[in-house]
Amino acid sequence: MKPLIAVLLGALSSSALACQAPSPDSLRAAWITWRAATLRDEPGASARLYKFPFLLLSAYQGDRPLRVTKAAFNDNYSGLFGAEMQFRQELKQTTDSEHIGKIDFDDKTCKLKFPVRIHDTNFTYDQKAGWLVQSIYMPEAYGLFNKGDTEGIR
Questions:
Q1: Average model confidence (pLDDT) for the chain?
Q2: Are 28 and 130 in contact (CB under 8 A)?
C-alpha cells in the first residue's frame, strides 16, 4: 500500500510542477495558425484551435452569447466565416503582428485569469491543448444565428 501512495504523491507533485505560464510567442503562433486556417477556409484545421462550445459574441453589451458546438461549427462554417461575412473581410485586414493583450496567468491555479484578446478573438489557455479560441465578436454572424433555430448554436 505504501508504494501505491508514493506513486500517487509523485504523480500529483509532477503534475503540479508541469504548470507553465504561456508565452506571448506561443499565443502569437496560435493567432497566426488560426488566422491562416480561417482565411484558407479550412474548418477541419481551424476546429482544433477552438474550445468547444465556443462563444459567438454580439456587438452589444448585455446580449447573451451564443454557444457554438463543434458539429454546428462544421455544419455552418460558411455562415460563420464565409467570404461575404464582415468578420472575414476584417480578418483579411489583420496581420501576423496584431497587438496581443496582457497575459494574466495565475501560477497557483495554473489558469489564465482572463481570456487574451487579439483583434476580435478571445483566446484561453489549456495546459495540454495550448491556446484555444474561446469567443469571437461577430455581430453579423450573431445576427444570423441568434434566433436559436440552428442546431448547435444557441
A1: 89
A2: no
